[in-house]
Amino acid sequence: MSQKREDYISWDEYFMGVAMLSGMRSKDPNTQVGACIVSEDNKILSMGYNGLPKGCSDDEFPWVREGAPLENKYFYTTHSELNAILNYRGGSLEGAKMYVSLFPCNECAKAIIQAGIKTIVYDSDKYQNTPAVIASKRMLDAAGVRYYQYTHTNREINITL
Ligand SMILES: O=c1[nH]c(=O)n([C@H]2C[C@H](O)[C@@H](COP(=O)(O)O)O2)cc1CO
Ligand SMILES: [Zn+2]
């Protein structure tokens, strides 16, 4: 009798793994964020990571955190969640789920709500005490977007490239 393999990765490991892999494309020296949007029937719809908009050179724009607004990264970077939403060109994201390696900020929360995404699975919540994340949770709660933290399984996945 032939039996199926039992050590395959779970849906959550798969989608959070894809989000983390996407984050590995980020040029941000401090925080790399990845997002993966999934349909209600577990199909990957889109992915994104934090980076500069098209045409803005990774080598010419600043990556530092400090200094004058025009001289640091914050005015220029597109967040992974917004990139994942904007990268989707297939139609509606109504009812979709987002896996993201960092809890979305208030600006991303607005985009998530307006895109019709209904569930967020996040990993790090390192900015939980900042006004941006407190405002984000307030809006997500009001809009009925469910969010829960990813449960680590400590599975290691090695891919030789
Ligand atoms: O939700 C987010 N998604 C996201 O992609 N980011 C990006 C913007 C910046 O490139 C980086 C945050 O940088 P830092 O941790 O150095 O402040 O992560 C930041 C947030 C903030 O929660
Ligand atoms: Zn954001």
What's the arrangement of secondary structure elements?
Elements: H1 11-23, E1 34-38, E2 44-49, H2 80-87, E3 97-102, H3 106-115, E4 119-124, H4 131-143, E5 146-149
Parallel strand pairs: 3-4, 4-5
Antiparallel strand pairs: 1-2, 1-3
Helix pairs in contact: 3-4
This protein binds 5-hydroxymethyluridine-2'-deoxy-5'-monophosphate and zinc ion (ZN).
Would you give an account of this structure?
The protein has 161 residues and is an alpha/beta fold. The chain is 27% helix and 17% strand. It contains four helices and five strands, in the order αββαβαβαβ. The longest helix is centred in the first third of the chain and has 13 residues. It is globular. It binds 5-hydroxymethyluridine-2'-deoxy-5'-monophosphate and zinc ion (ZN). The site of zinc ion has 6 residues, from helix 3. Pfam families: dCMP_cyt_deam_1.
Concise overview:
The protein has 4 helices and 5 strands.
List keywords for this structure.
about 160 residues, alpha/beta, 5-stranded mixed β-sheet, about 25% helix, binds zinc ion, 5 strands, globular, binds 5-hydroxymethyluridine-2'-deoxy-5'-monophosphate
**Taking Cα atoms only, what radius of gyration do you get, to the nearest Å?**
17 Å
Q: What can be said about the biggest beta sheet?
A: 5 strands, mixed
Question: Which range does the strand content fall in?
Answer: 15-25%
The oligomerization state is single chain
In N-to-C order, the SSE pattern is HEEHEHEHE
Bound molecules: 5-hydroxymethyluridine-2'-deoxy-5'-monophosphate, zinc ion
**Average residue-wise pLDDT:** 97
Structural class: alpha/beta
Number of strands: 5
Given as residue ranges, the uncertain stretches (5+ residues, pLDDT < 50) are none
SS element count, helices: 4
Shape verdict:
globular
Please list the strands of the largest sheet in the order they lie side by side.
Answer: 2-1-3-4-5
* Terminal-residue CA separation: 35 Å
**Share in helix:** 25-40%
Protein name: dCMP deaminase family protein
InterPro entries: CMP_dCMP_dom, Cytidine_deaminase-like, dCMP_deaminase, dCMP_deaminase-rel, Deoxycytidylate_deaminase_dom
Keywords: Hydrolase, Metal-binding, Nucleotide biosynthesis, Zinc
GO molecular function, one term: zinc ion binding
